[in-house]
Amino acid sequence: MHMQSMSRGLGILAVSAAVLFVSPALAETMKFKATLDGAQQSPPVTTKGKGTATFTFDTTKKTLSWDVKYSDLSGPATAAHIHGPAGMGENADPVIPFKKLKSPIKGSAVLTDAQAADLEAGKYYVNVHTAKNKGGEIRGQIEKAM
């Protein structure tokens, strides 16, 4: 009888351990990217400025991390954000401001369910603003990376 209880206890422990070790594998990480330039601004901006952005989205923690690199702007960045929801060529308000403006801009934020849905639907864009181009000098639509 004692052996049977111990055996059952070990079985439960083994199943619990298996669930514990399998759970992290269920977390999905999605990759996104954006190419920033003046042509994507709405209306378009003539600039030598350009940039790239890479994003990682942890679907379990709902954490979006970014690395935005830019160069050749008309002057220092005065603001930079993720805007949305908006498709290509549409304008929207900022939803995630970047705290640091100097390239490379790195950071992260926890998204709401609605923000996560907009991100996955391609409804967000990155915008870097300058004094000369207050509405944004370079912009890039965020899309799933292949």
Layout of strands and helices, then pairs:
Elements: H1 2-26, E1 29-37, E2 50-58, E3 63-71, E4 77-83, E5 94-97, E6 105-110, H2 113-120, E7 125-130, E8 138-141, E9 143-144
Q: What's the name of the CATH homologous superfamily?
A: Superoxide dismutase, copper/zinc binding domain
- The CATH topology is Immunoglobulin-like
Broad shape: globular
Count of distinct strands: 9
Low-pLDDT runs of 5+ residues are: 12-23
CATH architecture: Sandwich
Q: Domains counted in the coordinates: how many?
A: 1
**What is the mean pLDDT?**
88
Polypeptide structure, described:
The protein has 146 residues and is an alpha+beta fold. The chain has a single domain, classed as Superoxide dismutase, copper/zinc binding domain (Immunoglobulin-like, Sandwich). Helices cover 23% and strands 38% of the residues. The chain is built from two helices and nine strands; from the N terminus they run H-E-E-E-E-E-E-H-E-E-E. The protein has helices at residues 2-26, 113-120; strands at 29-37, 50-58, 63-71, 77-83, 94-97, 105-110, 125-130, 138-141, 143-144. It has a five-stranded antiparallel sheet, with no helix packed on it. A four-stranded antiparallel sheet has the order 5-4-7-8, with no helix packed on it. It is globular and about 40 Å long. The protein starts with a helix and ends with a strand.
